[in-house]
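In this supplementary section we document a worked example of the pipeline. Step one takes a protein sequence of length 601 as its only input; no multiple sequence alignment statistics are reported here. Step two produces a three-dimensional model, which step three serialises into structure tokens for compact storage. The input and output of this example are shown verbatim.
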Amino acid sequence: MTRNATIERVTERIIARSKDRRADYEARMASAAQDGPRRAHLSCGNQAHAYAGVVPDQNALIEGRAPNIGVVTAYNDMLSAHQPYEKYPDIIRRVARENGATAQVAGGVPAMCDGVTQGQTGMELSLFSRDVIAMAAGIALSHNTFDSAIYLGICDKIVPGLVMAAGTFGFIPSIFLPSGPMPSGIPNDEKAKVRQQFALGEVGRDELMKAEMGSYHSPGTCTFYGTANSNQMLMEFMGLHLPGASFVNPNTDLRDALTAYGVKRATEITNLGNDFRPAYQILTEKAFVNGIVGLMATGGSTNLILHLPAMAMACGIELRMEDFDEISSAVPLMAKVYPNGLADVNHFHAAGGLGYMIRELLAAGLLHQDVKTVLGDGLDQYTKEPKFVDGKLEFVEGAEQSLNDKIVRPASDPFQKTGGLSRLVGNLGEGVIKVSAVAEERRIVEAPVRIFHDQASVKAAFQAGEFTSDTIVVVRFQGPSANGMPELHSLTPILAVLQDRGLKVALVTDGRMSGASGKVPAAIHVSPEAAHGGPIAKLQDGDVVRLDAPNGTLEVLSEGFDARTPVSIDLNPNKHGIGREMFEVFRQAAGPANTGAVSIF
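The serialised model returned by step three reads:
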């Protein structure tokens, strides 16, 4: 199939834009890879320190002929998605030995749960935890004694941070091993309804807690299609997972078999064997384009619009907002998974899942087939799914037809012709909006604004009954330099109630929404941010703003707007408490949201 012209054009533009930076990166990675096994450069004293704690493997490590796998783990049991990782190191060590290799836990990285910190002070550390994770993984791998790396991480900032580390250490192979989603609980739309009822005071906290625990009820990733599951999609589309690995439930025979197979591959793709696959050869411009295509086709999380540029930056690649916008215009929305639909990721996986979508997108010329992956050469391997055949794990051809066209549809007959994400530009700056779950009649909102500087003030105004007419709610000073760019997902139930009352409402912010953002139009990541004197800091109550998603514009219609002086506020309250003191250096160093809000590159 001939490659889609838009995909080809955007890919060529990214390659041209990144030419010098990528060439320097590849030269550094190739030079490091040529140095051979990492342990060969350590002194006997260095090695003795590294091997002292692993008595069963000391002889193999000393001899140096067996691959040594470094495990970077984000295990904790605060995150349901990461709780299954508790047993992974033992599995990895055992399977490594069975395949003539060794494995060591190189280090742990922090892993916070955005579900726990949603609407709380701790959310102001969330975005920057990505950069901390990248650095912590870098410390783990700096011991320079590993021939390949296995990364254990799933959730919101963890996978992006680990990919940033994998790119920085691109001279060694990298494999990501997921743990899979928890089994389905109560339907996500039922949970959302109870949240709205609680916001209205129609039900008490006991009913809300019952609904929340019915949804988040066991080990595994949350089942809605938010950032965590978008991350898993991304790893599969970019060839860092095994085919079909993303959405197999934890603590099942198939899950354990996939984990073991991933370890086996980690032993096979080092430079001690015949199938050397360093990460830098997988993390190419084409791989990142494939990841963006997957994001658009599945209606994935807006958080990845922040994270993909950061991941690419670590690999010498420059992504810009226009790349996402143009790819979205060419890629059909093929999946309806909550909040874009009623199904969860378990239903999506059963209906054909990622393998079916990759097959369709390849046939439509919307993906690059000519890429390297951890399994082999060519993305067509990812149309397969893992199955037990005569008691042995094999990858067999997956679904060629959707098994439920209310959940996943062919590229030729999608839910909508574009990916549901639009870049917004105008005299308010540059932002982005996800409209895959927004009804078409609500994608244009022109209304007076109400200005707020925190989420609590919006909630107080709602409880006081102050929203009685069409309103665009502006929450500013929420960018990375102001307060770390927390998600504003806790505003969703309030705005949804107003919308259900028949009002035209929208959110405009220099902050974030989560991957669970849904039916209310939200212009997010507005750049430049208010803390840098961006146009959003010039807005006043009553200004009329027009948010036009179909045409990609975000405009203030009030006269004299451009001549105003931006307001400033006291940001000192955001600098202290719940660990915020330690993150001042990140707030000062953070780049703009439209290039990933990166603080370390």
